[in-house]
Amino acid sequence: MQKGKLVQPRGPRTPYFLAENENIPVETETEETTTRTATDSEGTEYNIEVPATSVVKDALCNFEYPPNGIRIKDVADALAAQFDLNDQQVNAKHRNGYKLWLNHVNTAARSLVESEELLRIRRGWIINPEQFQERTPDDASSSDEGPPSPEVVMERSYREIQKNLEKELLQKIKDNSPDFFEQLVLNLLVEMGYGGSQADVEAVGRSGDGGIDGIIKQDPLGLDIVYVQAKRWEYNVPVKEIRDFTGALASKGARKGIFITTSGFAKPAKKFACNMTTKKVILIDGEQLVQLMIKYDVGVSKGDTYQTKQIDLEYFGEVED
User: Fold this and answer.
1) Of 65, 71, 70, 67, nearest to 136 (Cα)?
2) What is this structure's pTM?
């Protein structure tokens, strides 16, 4: 009996062969493509190559969406032309009867909707969220597609609530003392996973310690330490502040630093931090700060929760039209 690793060179749901059998043509997959198993009218299975899910997602994110959105089916047709797919690739069907390419695009789109990179404006229709935000209620209600769906109204209201919360949260931070802000930053970093607990965090404050406001031990022995600086400013942080912070890190023999501000960073400051090679300094501006606070429940509490449900297309083996 021959021994060796078994492979499926012709894709899923196909016979296994020994990997070293050179007589079997091996259809390899690359990072750019993936294999799908189709079934013809006589029930015979065969494989087709289509762009990988990651490639389809990138194309969906970069797609030029019409002002009122577009059907996923139409996006699939447009992407098929963009990727120069042939009729067999576009029209190949799963054994359950649905088109593989359309389902492939639909699955990628659903994943992007879940990660909020795309917005589902109604059944089978998607749009870029930034484009959707530019539309006014009058634009939506006067379109040929009729008034916005309840999902669109809820999405719009949710985004408005989030934006108002972010503004209010940032103002609350500015209304408190610098000491409070420094402690808030350390609490947030612990909730994000830096250090094991509050016991691994030390607030240095304005003790003249080289611009260091906090120290976080990444391990129990303190062999790996992250240094923190927190600036409660109204104007953009200039590059000089980042240079001073990296100098403070150098004096401590440190390699990692986090610089957090309630404002923003000047372009030279961002460029300086990005181009550093011997040290890693993360810059977090006011907008990112409040978003992280909301995500990790620091300074906020959960309000009422409303859950909606939708059809599980994979369960029924169909694709939205």
Assistant:
1) 67
2) 0.54
